[in-house]
Design brief:
The structure holds two protein chains of two kinds. By secondary structure, chain A is mostly helical. Helices cover 74% and strands 4% of the residues of chain A. Chain A is built from 20 helices and two strands. In chain A, helix 13 packs antiparallel against helix 14. In chain B, 63% of the residues are buried. Chain B is 76% helix and 1% strand. The chains are: A mainly alpha, B mainly alpha. Chains A and B meet through strand 1, helix 5, helix 6 and helix 7 of A and helix 17, helix 18 and helix 20 of B.
Chain lengths: 502, 481
Amino acid sequence: MNFGIHPLLLVTFSPLVGVLVILFLKSQQKKAIRWTALATALVTFAISLWVLAQFQPGTADMQLELRVPWLRLDGLAIDFYMGVDGLSILMVLLTALLTPIAILSTWSAVEDRVKGFMIFFLLLEVGMTGVFLALDLVLFYVFWEFTLIPMYFLIGIWGGERRIYAAVKFFLFTMAGSLLMLLAILVIGFQTGTFAWSDLLAKRELFAAAQTWFFLAFGLAFAIKVPMFPLHTWLPDAHVEAPTAGSVILAGVLLKMGAYGFLRFNLPLFPEATVKFAPYLAILAIIGIIYGAAVSYAQKDMKKLVAYSSVSHLGFVVLGTFALTTQSVSGSVLQMVNHGLSTGALFLIVGMLYERRHTREMSAFGGVWKVVPVMGALMLVVTLSSMGLPGLNGFVGEFTILLGSFGSRVLGSPWFAGVATLGVILAAVYLLVMFEKVFLGPVKVEANLALKDLSVREIFTLVPLLILIFWIGLYPQPFFNLINPSVENLVSMVSSTLLAVH
Amino acid sequence: MTQADFFSILPIITILLWALALLVADLWIPKERKSMTALLAAVGLAVGVGLSLSQVGQTALTFKGMLMLDNFAVFLNIIFLVSGILAIALSYDYLKRMGIERGEYYVLLIFSIAGMMLLSQAYNLIVVFLAIEFLSIPLYILAGFARPRLESEEAALKYFLLGTFSSGFLLYGIALIFGATKSTGLEGIMAALSANEANLVLFIAGAALMLVGFGFKVAAVPFHEWAPDVYQGSPTPASAFMAVAVKAAGFAVLLRIFLTAFPTLAQQLMPVAWGVAALTMLVGNVLAINQTNLKRLLAYSSIAHAGYLLMAFVSASNPAHTGQAVSAMLYYLVAYGLTTFGAWAVVVSLEQAEGKGLELEDYAGVGQKYPWLGVAMLVFMLSLSGIPLTIGFWGKFFLFRTAVEAGFTSLALVGLFTSLVSVFYYLRVVVYMFMRPGEPRVRRDGWLSLVAVGAAVAVVLLSVLPSRLLDMAAQAVLRLQ
């Protein structure tokens, strides 16, 4: 069963079918547009599960490879080259899962220009999936840049008050990073005559001499996207101004593109430079962890708080990546998923509160658990998951990262993990403070007495996330089974150069 | 005139005769049916395209070494002819609407195209000069075609004065080169150079003066000052034509002369060209940031793109990558031309009488009220800034790649950073169209929409399948010595 089309093509481009259908609907048919978008996203999710079914967990090899020549010109060979391995399979699934959830969350939140919204949303899904599957540097760059356009519109048209500023800032920041990456791609292509990831791995010596520069050029693009301190300033603006669904995707998937880029390209292609820069990046990651947490604590606006908490949480991912042990890197990959689930859920709940009261100030709430018990209970679980309570997903990811980083030879000191652990405690502080201010205590503001509890639709948007939060928290082994072989392979590749260095 | 001579300029002769016949026939076409003239002119140009296509693959030195027919010339001739057809499509409704519809407009346009075609085939400096005058004089008139509007008259006068001034430089340069090499034919010049009979001081001075002359034509910094005023004042379709076709013609002759005849000089002039290219990208893009008038914005953007094209010129000075640089430039010209015509078509459809409807504020709400037009303009803006899934991305990709491979990574870096700057002002147009509410007034005209939407579709589709076009550009490389 493969419908005559390669599964990876199908999972990447199936949202385009929905786009095409929506194009022919009238903009007044909001219901039809929403249902089409949701159905398309669900079908795409089903296809991603089908890809998972064909995926062999036991091997580190690239699977389901698709490679056709795209462009040939005197010495230039650009391929349409896609493949999936343990690093990308979960990212693809996460993208396919979060998109229908985000679409469902817009049912009542987006009333204006629904047609455009759904078109951009589905195009965004194409771009994101493409980024995770592309194995040709040029193809990767094309998808990478393409994701900017729909997100730019989602923020710029359907965002909050300062949406235009936030959208332009988002676009320019990301673009600034990727231009140097483009230059590096061109130089690498010139030196090796290929842009294909697997060929580049084999011909690594050809560009090994200049790998410091390449590492920095790629790294800048990815670090801006993650975002790493001090390149994070676009993130709070983008998050606060973006519509809820946009925030969910932004935090859930777009940021992961940066972390994924490090894993896919920087580590295997420039291993010596990776080892050289790892401690510095780890320090930046730890600054990000502490700084993000501290700034989160100071926020009065819930959405800003969650936005800054992303800076902190992604710090763990970067730390794990550059600790370069199998455990820490696996933890990073899993934590990418975890952050997508729990922060996605946090943004959804904050969005639900905003829809009801049109404010996100924590002082406008207080004691609402009594009024909206279902929302309160779900929020509690999500909060605990985000701060890393054992038994929930956040704990598994962060604990694995910290454990792995503790014994890291590349970092060479347990202090990295030690200081980062503070971040876990700080996360508990700012998240619980938010929960307390909003949900606990007596009802202070009268308007909150009339709050409606979650509708069935809203529960449906949260339940899949909660199931996964518990699943990963209680029995993460199936996920690690998917991740581990590729990670082991990646780490052994990098550490073999480490041996050579020492 | 031998048969080979005749066939090598058949497309030029055909459209010239057609234009002359049209000039006479126009007398009998009643005033309210001047669109007839437009259609006939377009047909003539289409015939020219057909004849040019039949010349593909031929290489011939004709008229005793005065003209050269090769794929390079044919490729560019087709660009000029198609630009002419697109310009007519933009003018069709515009001239009527602005009350300046006269049959001479189309005839002048064809004359100018004939001059450009002659220029792309010129193999003798005298022919180069004649062809440049031949293409420029009709354009001076076209710039002033919206008289008695003051801006249009100003544009015509400014263009004329600066144009003749630059012609002076060119002519002086040609004279010096003739003095240095005792020849105006490229073959004679090459022979004199390779026999070491040339006076190098005179020769370099002459080449530098010619570079100045061409710099004016393609609006490279610091010879760019005329462009924004002229583009703003001229009738908009004529501006579009200038922004694409004149630029292409300028680059055609620049490449032809400097790469074929002065290959040794290319290396010595390289640092100057490097500086001019970097400066052009920088100044064009930075000055565009502050523009609120769309015509001026596109004018500065066209200056910036001249800088990117010059990057290919610089790369071509590396003998190992000359062919690659030329094909990258031809590809970029097509990408730029297609995108620019589309963008100008959108400008034409929003323009109102008396130069109204050209400010950024007038674009507010276009994306919501006229989604097709808005999306088309979005595609053009993305393409001009070089973002993937548009042909502009591949244009820049090949250009930067050539620069990197020819050893000018620093210039590619300048190009990359200036394109980041350009994203800012191109996105501003998008912001106004899609993110600000407004009541835009849009002229709906079949031909305009066809150009805008057709160009947008082509810009996207050619980006998914870029290789065919690139193959053609690669085959069109200059015949080098």
